[in-house]
Design a protein that fits this description.
The chain is an alpha/beta fold. It has helices at 13-16, 22-34, 37-40, 73-82, 108-118, 136-148, 166-169, 188-197, 233-245, 261-267, 270-276, and strands spanning 8-11, 44-46, 86-92, 122-126, 155-158, 177-179, 186-187, 210-212, 227-230, 250-252, 285-287, 300-306, 312-318, 324-329, 341-347, 353-355, 360-365, 369-379. It is 25% helix and 23% strand.
Length: 380
């Protein structure tokens, strides 16, 4: 199985944490369709930790908690599939999950077979309580081999938080994406910390092994299991834009049953989604902006990305607490003066078009904000 684009969907953890249930899952599946999320590309509905009984069954297999899921997981998966969605679940490389439910250590093949029988399409695989005597590389490969032989195509999401130099070995384990950070929380401080951690590591993302910057907190506004201070819509736009730009999976974490109009406008922006889902899958590159003398390069940076159709996506990001002026040169994008070419810059948030009429483009970027363009190459 080859995963050619970053997965998109919804995960239960950020809003519901351990308070997951059959009813929550089914109503969230309804909401994914009714709110236009499925039509926009969000196809995976993923149940996170705390779904199972505290002990395995007499046959050694995982069993759903009968109070939370009275009809069992196959019933839930069938309902999710009936909506045109794909169904995802959670397990862990240790003997216990992070919330101390049974993990898959030494049960990889039986668990993979169980997930396949239930109709699972996506497995998030965490890293809590793993034996210190075993290498993470070996533990993830064990489940990778089991999934590859379970008889069903299942997206394998490795969630080892970037520890043990994950970026160097995860692509060889069978994982289709790998978590490069610890857990995100609904606060600007958390978003900024994760974003800054990507600056040296984003080059390790690739088709079939995408760099997972963790789930989206867009639209939480300080409510839910992973909530802290909440964020403004400006901050959520920056969060969503950067995750999209760096080809991170777009897994919504807010309560999609009652999204605000602001959150809906962010999450359903088709032009930002198109950058994330571009078929070429090329990595973003950092553009030198020459402003190191007055902008902190850890807080203010510009990314470019060559799109499949020849367009160039350009993202100017300002994580600092004050506004700044950012710029980039056509030369940095392959458009030297002698080419006779320039760019028409289409702002994917405002919809405005601007012709780059000299060799340098500059603009003000607000605190915690961004400007994102899809640029078309034209004759000067």
């Amino acid at each position: 199985m080859i995963v050619t684009r970053p997965p998109m969907g919804w995960n239960s953890w950020n809003t519901f944490g351990p308070d997951i249930s059959e009813e929550v899952v089914m109503r969230s599946a309804d909401a994914m369709v009714e709110n236009g999320l499925l039509a926009a590309g969000y196809e995976y509905l993923v149940i996170d930790d705390c779904w199972s009984k505290r002990v395995r069954g007499a046959d050694g297999r995982l069993e759903a908690d009968p109070e939370k899921f009275p009809h069992g997981m196959k019933y839930v998966a069938d309902y999710v599939h009936s909506k045109g969605l794909k169904f995802g679940m959670y397990s862990c490389a240790g003997p216990l999950t992070c919330a101390r439910y049974p993990g898959s250590f030494d049960h990889e093949f039986v668990d993979a077979a169980t997930f396949a029988a239930w109709g699972v399409d996506y497995l998030k695989y965490d890293y809590c309580f793993h034996p210190s005597t075993r290498r993470g590389e070996d533990l993830y490969r064990r489940m990778g081999v089991a999934l590859a032989n379970c008889g069903r195509d299942i997206v394998f999401s490795g969630c080892s938080w970037g520890v043990e130099d994950t970026k160097q070995w995860m692509a060889g384990t069978g994982c289709h994406l790998w978590r490069s950070t610890g857990d995100i929380h609904d606060s600007w401080a958390s978003i900024r910390s994760i974003a800054q951690a990507q600056l040296p590591d984003q080059i390790y993302g690739r088709i079939n092994c995408f760099n997972d910057m963790d789930m989206l907190v867009v639209g939480m506004y300080g409510k839910g299991h992973a909530a802290l201070t909440g964020c403004t819509d400006e901050e959520y736009r920056t969060h969503f834009s950067l995750w999209a730009f760096l080809s991170s999976p777009l897994m919504i974490g807010c309560d999609i049953r009652n999204m605000s109009e602001g959150a809906r406008a962010i999450l359903l922006n088709p032009e930002v989604i198109a950058i994330n889902q571009d078929g070429a899958g090329r990595m973003a590159f950092r553009i030198y902006d020459g402003n190191a003398g007055w902008n902190d390069p850890a807080q203010s940076f510009v990314f470019g990305r060559l799109m499949e159709n020849g367009d160039i996506a350009i993202g100017l990001f300002n994580l600092a607490d004050g506004a700044c002026c950012q710029h980039f040169a056509a030369e940095n994008l392959g458009l030297a003066v002698g080419t006779g070419r320039t760019l028409v810059l289409h702002d994917v948030w405002s919809g405005e078009d601007t012709v780059m009429d000299n060799e340098i483009f500059q603009c003000d970027v607000p605190a915690h904000g961004c400007r994102v363009f899809r640029a078309r190459v034209v004759e000067r």
